[in-house]
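Good morning,

Attaching, inline, the C-alpha coordinates for the sequence recovery test we're adding to the shared suite. The designed sequence is right after.
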Protein backbone atom coordinates (compact mmCIF):
# COMPACT_ATOMS: atom_id res chain seq x y z
CA UNK A 1 0.00 0.00 0.00
CA UNK A 2 2.66 2.52 1.01
CA UNK A 3 4.82 1.67 -1.99
CA UNK A 4 1.92 2.24 -4.41
CA UNK A 5 1.03 5.47 -2.64
CA UNK A 6 4.60 6.67 -3.05
CA UNK A 7 4.66 5.74 -6.75
CA UNK A 8 1.36 7.49 -7.41
CA UNK A 9 2.42 10.63 -5.56
CA UNK A 10 5.65 10.85 -7.53
CA UNK A 11 3.76 10.25 -10.77
CA UNK A 12 1.30 13.07 -10.09
CA UNK A 13 4.18 15.46 -9.47
CA UNK A 14 5.92 14.29 -12.65
CA UNK A 15 2.78 14.85 -14.75
CA UNK A 16 2.28 18.36 -13.38
CA UNK A 17 5.94 19.25 -13.95
CA UNK A 18 5.92 17.81 -17.46
CA UNK A 19 2.84 19.85 -18.39
CA UNK A 20 4.40 23.02 -17.01
CA UNK A 21 7.80 22.40 -18.58
CA UNK A 22 6.87 21.04 -22.03
CA UNK A 23 3.23 21.93 -22.71
CA UNK A 24 2.50 25.16 -20.88
CA UNK A 25 1.15 26.79 -24.06
CA UNK A 26 -0.54 23.68 -25.39
CA UNK A 27 -2.69 22.38 -22.55
CA UNK A 28 -5.57 24.07 -20.76
CA UNK A 29 -5.82 21.80 -17.72
CA UNK A 30 -4.50 18.56 -16.29
CA UNK A 31 -7.01 16.82 -14.03
CA UNK A 32 -6.77 13.87 -11.66
CA UNK A 33 -9.82 12.15 -10.18
CA UNK A 34 -10.93 8.80 -8.76
CA UNK A 35 -9.48 6.93 -5.78
CA UNK A 36 -6.28 9.00 -5.58
CA UNK A 37 -8.37 12.14 -5.06
CA UNK A 38 -11.23 10.81 -2.95
CA UNK A 39 -9.03 8.93 -0.49
CA UNK A 40 -10.09 5.37 -1.33
CA UNK A 41 -6.85 4.24 -3.00
CA UNK A 42 -5.36 0.87 -2.13
CA UNK A 43 -2.33 -1.17 -3.18
CA UNK A 44 -3.92 -1.86 -6.59
CA UNK A 45 -5.02 1.71 -7.33
CA UNK A 46 -3.62 3.72 -10.22
CA UNK A 47 -3.99 7.45 -10.86
CA UNK A 48 -6.88 8.53 -13.07
CA UNK A 49 -5.54 11.42 -15.12
CA UNK A 50 -6.69 13.33 -18.18
CA UNK A 51 -5.83 16.65 -19.78
CA UNK A 52 -7.58 19.17 -22.00
CA UNK A 53 -5.43 20.05 -25.03
CA UNK A 54 -5.32 23.63 -26.25
CA UNK A 55 -3.39 22.96 -29.46
CA UNK A 56 -2.68 19.98 -31.69
CA UNK A 57 0.73 19.69 -30.07
CA UNK A 58 -0.97 19.31 -26.72
CA UNK A 59 -2.26 15.88 -27.74
CA UNK A 60 1.34 14.64 -27.72
CA UNK A 61 1.24 14.50 -23.93
CA UNK A 62 -1.02 11.44 -24.14
CA UNK A 63 0.78 8.31 -23.02
CA UNK A 64 0.41 4.98 -21.31
CA UNK A 65 2.89 2.89 -19.34
CA UNK A 66 3.32 0.28 -16.62
CA UNK A 67 4.96 0.98 -13.26
CA UNK A 68 5.73 -2.03 -11.08
CA UNK A 69 2.94 -4.08 -12.60
CA UNK A 70 0.27 -1.35 -12.67
CA UNK A 71 -0.96 0.22 -15.90
CA UNK A 72 -1.35 3.99 -16.16
CA UNK A 73 -2.99 6.07 -18.87
CA UNK A 74 -2.80 9.84 -19.39
CA UNK A 75 -5.43 10.68 -21.98
CA UNK A 76 -6.82 13.79 -23.71
CA UNK A 77 -10.34 15.08 -23.15
CA UNK A 78 -11.93 17.82 -25.27
CA UNK A 79 -13.90 20.70 -23.82
CA UNK A 80 -16.90 19.40 -25.77
CA UNK A 81 -16.72 16.08 -23.97
CA UNK A 82 -16.24 17.81 -20.62
CA UNK A 83 -19.48 19.64 -21.29
CA UNK A 84 -21.27 16.40 -22.16
CA UNK A 85 -20.15 14.96 -18.84
CA UNK A 86 -21.31 18.11 -17.02
CA UNK A 87 -24.70 17.66 -18.70
CA UNK A 88 -24.86 14.02 -17.48
CA UNK A 89 -24.64 12.66 -21.01
CA UNK A 90 -21.61 10.50 -20.16
CA UNK A 91 -20.91 8.35 -17.09
CA UNK A 92 -17.67 10.03 -16.03
CA UNK A 93 -19.22 12.55 -13.68
CA UNK A 94 -16.42 12.50 -11.05
CA UNK A 95 -14.03 13.70 -13.74
CA UNK A 96 -15.86 17.03 -13.62
CA UNK A 97 -17.48 17.01 -10.20
CA UNK A 98 -14.54 15.87 -8.09
CA UNK A 99 -11.46 16.55 -10.18
CA UNK A 100 -8.30 18.01 -8.73
CA UNK A 101 -6.48 20.39 -11.05
CA UNK A 102 -2.72 19.80 -11.03
CA UNK A 103 -1.91 22.11 -13.94
CA UNK A 104 -3.77 25.14 -15.27
CA UNK A 105 -2.80 27.00 -18.43
CA UNK A 106 -4.60 30.26 -17.64
CA UNK A 107 -7.16 31.93 -15.43
CA UNK A 108 -9.62 31.68 -18.32
CA UNK A 109 -9.15 27.91 -18.46
CA UNK A 110 -9.77 27.67 -14.73
CA UNK A 111 -12.92 29.79 -14.99
CA UNK A 112 -14.21 27.71 -17.88
CA UNK A 113 -13.80 24.47 -15.95
CA UNK A 114 -15.43 25.95 -12.86
CA UNK A 115 -18.31 26.91 -15.12
CA UNK A 116 -18.61 23.27 -16.16
CA UNK A 117 -18.72 22.23 -12.51
CA UNK A 118 -21.49 24.75 -11.89
CA UNK A 119 -23.39 23.42 -14.90
CA UNK A 120 -23.12 19.90 -13.48
CA UNK A 121 -24.64 21.01 -10.18
CA UNK A 122 -27.44 22.84 -12.00
CA UNK A 123 -28.23 19.73 -14.04
CA UNK A 124 -28.29 17.56 -10.93
CA UNK A 125 -30.61 20.01 -9.19
CA UNK A 126 -33.16 20.01 -12.05
CA UNK A 127 -35.76 17.38 -11.21
CA UNK A 128 -37.25 17.15 -14.70
CA UNK A 129 -33.82 16.94 -16.30
CA UNK A 130 -32.48 14.16 -14.05
CA UNK A 131 -35.67 12.20 -14.66
CA UNK A 132 -35.09 12.49 -18.40
CA UNK A 133 -31.47 11.35 -18.07
CA UNK A 134 -32.46 8.47 -15.77
CA UNK A 135 -35.09 7.33 -18.26
CA UNK A 136 -32.48 7.32 -21.01
CA UNK A 137 -30.17 5.17 -18.87
CA UNK A 138 -32.97 2.70 -18.14
CA UNK A 139 -33.82 2.41 -21.82
CA UNK A 140 -30.17 1.68 -22.51
CA UNK A 141 -30.15 -0.94 -19.76
CA UNK A 142 -33.20 -2.54 -21.34
CA UNK A 143 -31.45 -2.66 -24.70
CA UNK A 144 -28.43 -4.32 -23.09
CA UNK A 145 -30.68 -6.84 -21.35
CA UNK A 146 -32.03 -7.91 -24.71
CA UNK A 147 -28.50 -8.48 -25.93
CA UNK A 148 -27.61 -10.44 -22.80
CA UNK A 149 -30.24 -13.06 -23.59
CA UNK A 150 -28.57 -13.88 -26.90
CA UNK A 151 -24.82 -13.86 -26.21
CA UNK A 152 -22.87 -17.02 -27.02
CA UNK A 153 -20.08 -17.02 -24.46
CA UNK A 154 -20.00 -16.55 -20.72
CA UNK A 155 -17.33 -13.88 -21.07
CA UNK A 156 -19.59 -11.80 -23.29
CA UNK A 157 -22.49 -12.36 -20.90
CA UNK A 158 -20.50 -11.19 -17.88
CA UNK A 159 -19.36 -8.10 -19.76
CA UNK A 160 -22.91 -7.18 -20.74
CA UNK A 161 -24.23 -7.97 -17.26
CA UNK A 162 -21.70 -5.56 -15.81
CA UNK A 163 -22.78 -2.88 -18.26
CA UNK A 164 -26.42 -3.43 -17.28
CA UNK A 165 -25.58 -3.10 -13.60
CA UNK A 166 -23.52 0.06 -14.09
CA UNK A 167 -26.13 1.66 -16.35
CA UNK A 168 -29.00 0.98 -13.94
CA UNK A 169 -26.90 2.08 -10.97
CA UNK A 170 -26.12 5.34 -12.70
CA UNK A 171 -29.83 5.83 -13.43
CA UNK A 172 -30.62 5.35 -9.74
CA UNK A 173 -28.01 7.87 -8.66
CA UNK A 174 -28.96 10.50 -11.24
CA UNK A 175 -32.66 10.18 -10.39
CA UNK A 176 -31.72 11.02 -6.80
CA UNK A 177 -29.69 14.06 -7.92
CA UNK A 178 -26.39 12.30 -7.24
CA UNK A 179 -23.56 10.48 -8.94
CA UNK A 180 -21.08 7.81 -7.96
CA UNK A 181 -17.90 9.29 -6.56
CA UNK A 182 -16.43 5.83 -6.06
CA UNK A 183 -17.10 2.62 -7.94
CA UNK A 184 -16.29 -1.08 -7.67
CA UNK A 185 -16.13 -2.32 -4.08
CA UNK A 186 -17.67 0.75 -2.44
CA UNK A 187 -20.39 1.14 -5.04
CA UNK A 188 -22.69 -1.29 -3.23
CA UNK A 189 -22.71 0.82 -0.07
CA UNK A 190 -23.49 4.00 -1.97
CA UNK A 191 -26.40 2.16 -3.56
CA UNK A 192 -27.69 1.08 -0.14
CA UNK A 193 -28.00 4.75 0.82
CA UNK A 194 -30.03 5.42 -2.33
CA UNK A 195 -32.12 2.29 -1.83
CA UNK A 196 -33.20 3.51 1.59
CA UNK A 197 -34.56 6.71 0.06
CA UNK A 198 -35.93 5.17 -3.13
CA UNK A 199 -38.38 2.74 -1.49
CA UNK A 200 -39.44 0.01 -3.96
CA UNK A 201 -38.58 1.74 -7.23
CA UNK A 202 -35.23 0.02 -7.63
CA UNK A 203 -36.21 -3.60 -6.90
CA UNK A 204 -35.00 -4.85 -10.28
CA UNK A 205 -31.60 -3.21 -9.89
CA UNK A 206 -31.06 -5.10 -6.64
CA UNK A 207 -31.91 -8.38 -8.35
CA UNK A 208 -29.01 -7.70 -10.68
CA UNK A 209 -26.45 -6.51 -8.18
CA UNK A 210 -27.20 -9.29 -5.66
CA UNK A 211 -26.68 -12.06 -8.21
CA UNK A 212 -23.36 -13.77 -7.50
CA UNK A 213 -23.53 -16.25 -10.37
CA UNK A 214 -24.27 -15.67 -14.02
CA UNK A 215 -26.81 -18.51 -14.21
CA UNK A 216 -28.76 -16.89 -11.36
CA UNK A 217 -28.64 -13.56 -13.12
CA UNK A 218 -30.04 -15.02 -16.32
CA UNK A 219 -32.75 -16.96 -14.48
CA UNK A 220 -33.91 -13.93 -12.55
CA UNK A 221 -33.85 -11.80 -15.66
CA UNK A 222 -36.23 -14.14 -17.47
CA UNK A 223 -38.99 -13.33 -15.03
CA UNK A 224 -39.16 -9.72 -16.18
CA UNK A 225 -40.57 -8.30 -19.37
CA UNK A 226 -38.61 -5.93 -21.57
CA UNK A 227 -40.99 -3.21 -20.41
CA UNK A 228 -39.86 -3.79 -16.83
CA UNK A 229 -36.22 -3.84 -17.89
CA UNK A 230 -36.58 -0.63 -19.85
CA UNK A 231 -38.99 1.38 -17.69
CA UNK A 232 -37.95 -0.03 -14.33
CA UNK A 233 -38.24 3.27 -12.49
CA UNK A 234 -41.79 4.05 -13.45
CA UNK A 235 -43.45 0.63 -13.50
CA UNK A 236 -42.37 -1.10 -10.31
Amino acid sequence: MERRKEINGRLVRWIAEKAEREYAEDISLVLIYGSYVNGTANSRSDVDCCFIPKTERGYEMATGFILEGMGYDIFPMSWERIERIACLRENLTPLVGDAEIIFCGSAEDMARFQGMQEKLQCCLADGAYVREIAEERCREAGRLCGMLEHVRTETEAWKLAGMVIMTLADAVAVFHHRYFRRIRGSMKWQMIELKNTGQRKWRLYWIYISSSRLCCLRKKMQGHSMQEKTDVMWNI
